[in-house]
Amino acid sequence: MEYLLGKTWGELKTLVNELNMPGFTAKQISNWLYNKKISSIDEMSDISLIHRKRLKENYETGRRIPSQKQESIDGTIKYLFSASNDHFIESVYIPDKERATLCVSSQIGCKMNCLFCMTGKQGFSGQLTSGDMLNQIISVPESDILTNLVFMGMGEPLDNMDELFKTIEILTSDYGFAWSPKRITVSTIGIIPGLKRFLKESKVHLAISLNSPYSTERLSLMPVEKAYPIIEILNLIKQYDFTRQRRLSFEYIMFGGLNDDLKHAVALVKLLRDIPCRVNLIRYHSIPDVRLPASDTKAMIEFQEYLNSKGIICTLRSSRGEDILAACGMLSGAFQIEQG
User: Fold this and answer.
1) Which CATH number applies to 2-60?
2) Residue 56 near residue 304 (C-beta atoms within 8 A)
3) Which residues of the chain have pLDDT under 70?
């Protein structure tokens, strides 16, 4: 059975035409799905009974509530959702003063196998559809108070471009959620073919996982460096304007004695020179079977102060949800194992 959730305006128009329904039914369906966030076709009360019956013979809404949740002592909540083929994905809700952010997954697992990331350790089990991504957003209890979305959950978003773009279209279009692109950030390790399309077609914010200014060292942490070197990523980025609506940031996970000294800070400033951006420093969260030390707070602050002194906006990202394995790099299959 196909799902309605995740269908674009064009797909909904095609659908109602194929089912011999009036053209305006597409608008009714999109309103029920994306504005009223209904769970059942039976709730579409302004669509005739015969047309609702026809819809139910061919489609389901695709709405699925979380299977489980875990709450951190800091208020962060990790949600478990079922996906295709008996797999599960995780989403993370992060409340922070006036902001309410949802960290959205884009794949079941991940192909990229970054050394520091638990998601990569579980391997890749499949792509999420636009409906799967949107379901995370509308099915958490906090859906109506969300202020920001970050595609930083399980998976590499630019390795699932078509479904990611459908999701962003629905989120930002008048027929969908009508969100401003400024409320959405996509994080990537730098898949260049996908990044080219993203930069041309999207207006949402971009975050790039950097983690070292040195190619050889970055390769030891992120195998993707071999196929898509950071220098090529930066050369591409320099062709686009990040001084207006769209914001560019670099994610830099701090490993003690590896990438957190002054030498790295100097090299990072040189690498990012003339690129309007900010750098987010992230504390490394230890994962099983990986011997990487975390930076201490003193080293992180000194690194931050140096970057700021050289004109690069640099922030220390607060660690959230570590006690429930919901922090950066910690989403994995461990939560789903609890389901038996």
Assistant:
1) 1.10.150.530
2) no
3) 333-340
DSSP assignment letter at 30: H
Strand 184-188: give its sheet, edge to edge.
Answer: 68-71, 77-82, 88-96, 99-103, 148-151, 184-188, 205-209, 248-254, 278-283, 313-317
Contact 157, 178 (CB under 8 A): no
pLDDT value at residue 337:
43
pLDDT at 14: 98
What is the pLDDT, as a whole number, of residue 322? 85
pLDDT in tens, 209-267: 999 999 999 999 999 999 999 999 999 999 999 988 899 999 999 999 999 999 999 99
pLDDT at res. 333: 54
Candidates 82, 87, 88; CA nearest to 63 is: 82
Q: At what angle do helices 161-172 and 130-139 cross, to 10 degrees?
A: 40
Q: Where are the domains of the chain?
A: 2-60, 68-337
Class of domain 68-337: alpha beta
Beta carbons within 8 Å of 104's beta carbon, 6+ residues apart: 91, 133, 136, 137, 149, 150, 151, 152, 153
Q: What angle do CA 91, 294, 107 make, to 5 degrees?
A: 25
Task: Report d(CA 15, CA 25) in Å as an integer.
Answer: 10
Beta-carbon count within 10 A of 233 CB: 20
234 in helix, strand or coil? Answer: helix
Take residue 250 and report the two structure tokens written for it: 């670099």
- 272 membership: H or E segment, kind and range: none
Q: Which candidate in 90, 163, 225, 251 is catalytic?
A: 90
Quote the tokens at residue 270. Answer: 């040189």
Catalytic site residue 60? Answer: no
Q: Is 71 among the residues known to form the active site?
A: no
User: What pLDDT was estimated at residue 319?
Assistant: 80
The Cα 191–Cα 77 span in angstroms is: 29
Given 201, 225, 328, 338, the catalytic residue: 328
DSSP state letters, 121-178: HT-EEEEPPHHHHHHHHHHSTTGGG--EEEE-SSS-GGGSHHHHHHHHHHHHSTTTT-
pLDDT at 257: 95
